[in-house]
Specification:
The complex is a heterodimer of chains A (229) and B (735). In chain A, strand 1, helix 1 and strand 2 form a beta-alpha-beta unit. The mean pLDDT of chain A is 92. Chain A has a single domain, classed as Class I glutamine amidotransferase (GATase) domain (Rossmann fold), CATH 3.40.50.880. Chain A starts with a strand and ends with a helix. Chain A has five helices and eleven strands, in the order βαββαβαββββαβββα. Chain A has 229 residues and is of the alpha/beta class. Among the domains of chain B are: 37 residues, no CATH class; 164 residues, Alpha-Beta Complex (Phosphoribosyl-aminoimidazole Synthetase, Chain A, domain 2). In chain B, 37% of the residues lie in helices and 22% in strands. In chain B, the strands form five sheets. In chain B, strands 8-10-7-11-9-12-13 form a seven-stranded mixed β-sheet. In chain B, helix 7 packs parallel to helix 8, helix 7 packs parallel to helix 10 and helix 19 runs parallel beside helix 20. The longest helix of chain B is centred in the C-terminal third of the chain and has 23 residues. Chain B is globular, with a radius of gyration of 26 Å. The chains are: A alpha/beta (229), B alpha+beta (735). At the A-B interface, helix 1 and strand 6 of A face helix 8 and helix 10 of B. Bound molecules: magnesium ion. Magnesium ion binds next to loops of chain B.
Chain lengths: 229, 735
């Protein structure tokens, strides 16, 4: 039985098909979930893809968190299910309070689409188990608002508890502590600015995205296999 | 001046054109009719000054499924796989309001491609501005780039390549040419209205007052000092509606729910109504009161010529109408059904129960006056070719190379393309910064390579030679990736057609494109002409931008510019003529002069070179390929080294000669391959009659030319900072 991923489509999302293809190529079954749906009980993994949900006219991610599907996303997270928010999806998870901190405009006040290197600082999470600790991943970023920050005291807590999972080798956007990806307290929700779905094929420049997405599939797969029939 | 005269002149019509309308109608036109004629007969929509010349371009070829005259050309990539490819200018709107002007340029070309039933999957931009150090340039550049970025990124179509060049002549007339590639999903759609009785469905944004008269006022006249006063003519784009429009249009086409489809661009609603009916020999009946509007109180003439963005018109059989409206509603897109196709051959518009326009469709769509405008070689053309071409020996080869690397024409444009999402869609095999972008088609192994090139300086020196060089360079760029050059879309940017020298430039350029495209077997599948790129009587260099599309059967065999492995052999394919400095970057940087003749192009050698590159890539033997263009072979080698993060050691007698290093002879490529495969590559070149010379070896982190060397790091710094350091200067000056 393959792992089932639900990819939430907000009006203005635009990376949902790429996520579906990348996860599909790793063996997952995928379903695009319209933001007005209310049910996610049929999926193992929830993906909030990149894009510009609701046009982001107010503040990035601010409107999307009121979409009907978000209640189901929160319930999925509460029950221990895996949730990954990529780029705009990360912003939505912060707005929804599932992840700490917030994302501001890049320091250079420009949209940035480029390759970056990010270190895996905690390889014991369901999202990073395929990476050895300290491994550097080549992943592209693509955002205007990826400059993550939080209160100084909180930053220390997050670091001490291993929740600052991904760290840029060269900070591209001003993000506090070079943070590229952060987990919730239970390590079942990850938000990250780099796009792993764009890096699952050598021909496109990197296969390192498959390390993150594949780790999730491993984690869920192990769970599925361990359930007695 | 009579009142009537004041009205039609305000709309951009001449006295003669007004007389011609009266003759066609047999009466004085109504105001609404005048408005419709003014946009449809504008230079922008009717090509009245360029039509005669354009007719000579070669448009047919085995792979051409649809040629010029539709939303976009359609090219067969392999059996059962076809793409749409088209370029258009949005120069004038981008000068008046850079952000919105450029954004709506992207939106417009995307809809052109969409109207053919193709999903847009890649964008490229060819941009020209005044000197980079100018504060005005920074304002325009930032506006244009952010317009393209915000629109293209939001609709989820990657911007994968292009060019961005700077020249004094574009100071008051920036060029924003946008090209779009689409892939046909189910069927090729046409802008036709074949079946009387079909309903007209207008879907997308509501019609508002923006862009009234954009085609006639903005795009079809030169600027004086009143550019700001024309701001209301620039349309406002909404990328989120465009994204919905893409999904709706494709669902309608793919499910076979529509019989005809066309986008609304220049000329507004009048354009598809007239063109679709005229093409099919049918008519259309329209009630302006039914069109969904953004604001109340719009006059019928405004409704007919408004250039509000993100709208399309479809013809639909009555049985499928409900399904079509259901699709629009499901995506949350507005739609109205303002009329139907008739068999009268006339376009009839009703408002308030009264017929306010009734015009034969062909009169609007096809019978604009055709101008045989006077064409005379200007007196300065000869002397310009005999003036010095800036060939002076540099004091130091190393310093000369560094200066070239940092020059605005050559320096890295990362600052520009990092603001574009160039990866969405998982198809970008080669992105911006190389010779051509390589885009894998969704769900296929094949790919297309795309390049846009428009050497304005060469064309100013000699428009015929310059146009041939433009085609050759675009084809060479595509061939460097291993793709076979297959089809051309072009955008001819010129001054006012009312000046005889501009018409001469046009005819020379068309002749050059024709000769090169015929020889290289790359038919022209569409394009556009942008006249009136002049301000206060000062015209731009004639700038034909050639959008070349090449075909690569196997995406994974694509070759990039980067030197890949230590120990690889570097070869130079093609001959260097040490006198090719006219219009060169070298002359620009060190003499600040434009003079002489452009580089000499031999099409036979050029074509042979492309064959070597294509066959070499297909055999998997080429590790890299990059053609010397601006800055010559020295710059090409450095760019290849920087792209790969690897140095080289050269042992070639030419490296001590500035003429050999910096000359811009066409028909050449720097390639690298494994040492043991070099003989095979050389053999292939010999077989095809192309000279191949050993230049040296890939190794280390030094660019060791022999007589001089510099570190990779130093070269990278110059190349990377050349652009941004000048931009900062401009900012400082302004503050
Ligand atoms: Mg090139």
């Amino acid at each position: 039985m393959s792992v089932r991923a639900g990819i939430v489509l907000f009006p203005g999302s635009n990376c949902e098909q790429d996520c579906a293809r990348a996860l599909g190529s790793l063996g997952a079954e995928t379903r695009i979930v319209w933001h007005q749906e209310k049910e996610l009980s049929d999926v193992d993994i929830v993906v909030l893809p990149g894009g510009f949900a609701h046009g982001d006219y107010l503040r990035t991610g601010a409107l999307a968190r009121f979409s009907p599907i978000m209640e189901a996303v929160c319930a999925h997270a509460r029950s221990g299910g895996l949730v990954i928010g990529i780029c705009n999806g990360f912003q939505i998870l912060c707005e929804a309070g599932l992840l700490p901190g917030a994302l501001r405009r890049n320091v250079n006040l420009k949209f940035l689409c480029k390759w970056t290197s990010a270190y895996v600082d905690n390889s014991t999470t369901p999202f990073t188990s395929r990476a050895g600790a300290g491994r550097s991943l080549r992943l592209p970023i693509n955002h205007f608002e990826g400059n993550w920050y939080c209160e100084a005291a909180e930053l220390e807590d997050l670091r001490a508890s291993g929740r600052l999972v991904l760290r840029y080798a060269e900070n591209p956007n001003g993000s506090l502590g070079d943070v590229a990806g952060v987990c919730n307290e239970d390590f079942n929700v990850l938000g990250l600015m780099p796009h792993p779905e764009r890096a699952c094929e050598a021909l496109l420049g990197s296969e390192d995205g498959a390390v993150l997405l594949g780790s999730m599939l491993d984690h869920v797969g192990a769970g599925i296999r361990s359930v007695p029939v | 001046m009579t009142t009537a005269q004041a009205v039609y002149r305000e709309l951009g019509l001449t006295d003669d054109e007004h007389d011609a309308i009266i003759e066609r109608l047999g009466r004085v036109p109504s105001y609404t009719e005048l408005a419709m004629f003014s946009v449809m007969w504008s230079e922008h929509c009717s090509y009245k000054s360029s039509r005669v010349e354009l007719a000579s371009l070669p448009t047919e070829g085995e792979r051409v499924l649809v040629g010029p005259g539709e939303g976009a050309g359609i090219i067969e990539v392999e059996p059962g796989v076809a793409v749409a490819w088209k370029i258009e200018s949005h120069n004038h709107p981008s000068f008046v309001e850079p952000g919105n002007g450029a954004a709506t340029g992207v939106g417009g070309i995307v809809r052109d491609v969409l109207s053919m039933g193709a999903r847009p999957i890649a964008l490229l931009d060819s941009l020209r501005f005044g000197p980079l150090e100018d504060a005005g340039t920074r304002f325009l550049l930032e506006g244009v780039v952010s317009g393209i970025s915000s629109y293209g990124n939001s609709i989820g179509v990657p911007t994968v390549g292009g060019e961005c060049l700077f020249e004094d002549c574009y100071r008051q007339n920036p060029l924003v040419n946008v090209a779009c590639l689409g892939v046909i999903e189910e069927r090729v759609m046409r802008g036709r209205a074949d079946n009387p009785g079909d309903a007209l469905v207008l879907f997308g944004s509501a019609t508002g007052r923006d862009g009234i008269g954009g085609a006639s006022v903005l795009a079809s006249a030169e600027f004086g000092d009143d550019a700001a006063a024309k701001r209301p003519s620039v349309q406002v784009g909404d990328p989120f509606t465009e994204k919905l429009l893409i999904e709706v249009a494709l669902e309608l086409v793919n499910r076979g729910l529509v019989t005809g489809l066309q986008d609304l661009g220049a000329g507004g609603l009048s354009c598809p109504v007239a063109e679709m009916a005229s093409k099919s020999g049918t008519g259309m009946e329209l009630d302006a009161d039914i069109v969904h509007l953004r604001e109340p109180g719009m006059e019928p003439f405004e409704i007919m010529i408004s250039e509000s963005q993100e709208r399309m018109l479809a013809t639909v059989t009555p049985e499928r109408l409900d399904e079509v409206l259901e699709v629009c509603a499901r995506w949350g897109l507005m739609a109205s059904v303002p009329g139907r196709v008739t068999s009268t051959g006339r376009i009839t518009v009703v408002a308030g129960g009264q017929e306010i326009a009734g015009v034969p469709a062909p009169a609007l769509a096809d019978e604009a006056p055709v101008y045989h405008r006077p064409s005379v070689r200007p007196p300065w053309a000869g002397p310009l070719q005999f003036s010095p071409s800036g060939e002076t020996a540099p004091e130091s080869l190393e310093e000369a190379l560094l200066a070239l690397l940092a020059s605005p024409g050559i320096a890295s444009k990362e600052w520009v393309w990092e603001q574009y999402d160039h990866m969405i869609g998982l198809g970008t095999i080669e992105g911006p910064g190389g010779d051509a972008a390589v885009i894998r088609l969704p769900g296929r192994r094949c790919a297309v390579a795309l390049s846009v090139d428009g050497p304005g300086r060469y064309c100013q020196l000699d428009p015929y030679e310059g146009a041939r060089l433009a085609v050759a360079e675009a084809a060479r760029n595509v061939a460097c990736t291993g793709a076979r050059p297959a089809a051309v879309t072009n955008c001819l940017n010129l001054g006012s057609p009312e000046r005889s020298e501009v018409m001469w430039q046009l005819s020379e350029i068309v002749r050059g494109i024709k000769d090169a495209c015929l020889y290289l077997e790359t038919p022209v599948t569409g394009g556009n002409v942008s006249f009136y790129n002049e301000t206060s009587g000062r015209s731009i260099y004639p700038t034909p931008v050639i959008g070349m599309l090449g075909i690569l059967e196997e995406a994974s065999m694509a070759v990039g510019p980067a030197l890949g492995r230590d120990g690889d052999v570097i070869l130079l394919l093609g001959k260097t003529d040490g006198n090719d400095f006219g219009g060169s970057e070298y002359a620009q940087v060190f003499a600040g002069a434009l003079g002489g003749r452009p580089p000499r192009l031999d099409l036979a050698s050029e074509k042979a070179l492309h064959a070597v590159l294509v066959r070499g890539a297909a055999s998997g033997r080429l590790a890299s390929a990059h053609d010397p263009s601006a800055g010559g072979v020295a710059v090409a080698l450095t760019e290849a080294a920087l792209a790969g993060g690897r140095g080289f050691r050269l042992s070639h007698p030419g490296t001590g000669s500035w003429r050999w290093l910096f000359s811009e002879s066409p028909g050449r490529a720097v390639v690298s391959c494994r040492r043991d495969e070099a003989p095979t590559v050389e053999g292939l070149a010999r077989e095809l009659g192309v000279e191949a010379r050993h230049l040296g070896t890939v190794c280390g982190d030094q660019l060791d030319f022999g007589p001089f060397k510099l570190s990779l790091e130093r070269a990278r710094e110059g190349h990377r900072n050349g652009f941004t350091s000048r931009l900062s200067t401009a900012a400082a000056l302004r503050e």
